[in-house]
Amino acid sequence: MTEQTFVLPDVGEGLTEAEIVQWRVAPGDTVAVNDVIVEIETAKSLVELPSPFSGTVGELLASEGSTVEVGAPIITIGSADAAPPAPAQPTTVPEPDDAGGAVLVGYGTGGAVSSRRRKPAERPVKASVGVVAKPPIRKLARDLGVDLAAVTPSGPAGEVTRQDVVKHAEQASVFRNIETPEWGAVREETIPVAAPAAPASIDDAREESIPVRGVRKATATAMTSSAYSAPHVSVWVDVDASRTMELVKRLKASPDFADVKISPLLIMARAVMWALRRTPMINAAWVDTEDGAQIRVRHYVNLGIAAATPRGLLVPNIKDAQAMNTRELAKALENLTLTAREGKTSPADQAGGTFTITNIGVFGVDAGTPIINPGEAGIIALGAIRQKPWVVDGEVRPRWVTTVSGSFDHRVVDGDGISRFIADVASVLEEPALLLD
């Protein structure tokens, strides 16, 4: 029997290391070519590595939770006839809808070895006999752990729509966390972002140290570099967004948008695109080259949306968002959100962003001074939209009010450009009819 050694491959992200999250096999298991053998986490994504060999698993050379350098051996597989290894530099791509994650180009999409950990699609849900819903909607409900029988249908024939399922999942998430917890007995603790080491002694139980790696390490490095290399300037303005809320309501009732999630973030995204066209320097970036510093202006918009996910902060972006109509942009935002929530955001989806929106309003926050994403010149934040007293034609009336705030690289954009951009975004939120231009 020939023993083959599988080394950690370069998954095409330009990274040098990855964390072993979970082994899908154990010594003695039989695997075939393309069977998933391990799940790893890089600084950008979770990746399932398929086996390039068939045979019997020998030894696991890296433990779960350990960080391994690219090129280091991670597993041995015994085989009578060794299969040729896969290409040296594969890249990650999403699997089809029914697949469980990402695979490496060159390895194929063969069947996976049974996992010891449940995937989102395997979460138990109650039976939904008698509920009218199309197969894709039923799959979405399974993925989000939603009981279709508990969802109020809004379809014209009494069927459950995609928007019904997503709305139910979001409401369930909010109400699961609405109860105020009691104070714990320990004065301080650090929230784990990875499996912590066991305390060395009873005396150490009051504190613990968590290794910084994966997404948290990448985020910390990027934000520190941005904060201390780009001179940030922040501005904000309060906005009467009542007409935006009216437009959102009309779009939700429109048959053309029946299968798409509509929210104020969609109007915000359209407003940002309109404003970027009027002040293109906001869509630029400061670039240091061997010949000196340059300002690179992009005549396209890869619109980043900051997303809080179970793995940490990710900023996937919508490629060429400037070329999309309202429906296309709404669909792209919905797909981006669902993909991030399921932990399937690929490295390609996070690369090449030109400008970022962070929707802090979903957390009930009014405004902030966000840090610019590296490689960009600005980031804008949409605050919570609340009914507040507002002066209209000399009278105080209840209006839907929000705060738009943003941070910008003062090396790239001067104060007048920054102010004009924020004012333009505010103008569209106050009067969305400007988008008809």
TrEMBL record:
Keywords: Acyltransferase, Lipoyl, Transferase. Residues 132-169 form the Peripheral subunit-binding (PSBD) domain. Its EC number is 2.3.1.-. InterPro entries: 2-oxoacid_DH_actylTfrase (IPR001078), 2-oxoacid_DH_E2_comp (IPR050743), Biotin_lipoyl (IPR000089), CAT-like_dom_sf (IPR023213), E3-bd_dom_sf (IPR036625), PSBD (IPR004167), Single_hybrid_motif (IPR011053). Its cofactor is (R)-lipoate. Residues 3-78 form the Lipoyl-binding domain. CDD domains: lipoyl_domain. One of its GO terms (cellular component) is cytoplasm. GO terms for molecular function: acetyltransferase activity; lipoic acid binding. Belongs to the 2-oxoacid dehydrogenase family. This is Dihydrolipoamide acetyltransferase component of pyruvate dehydrogenase complex. It comes from Microbacterium enclense.
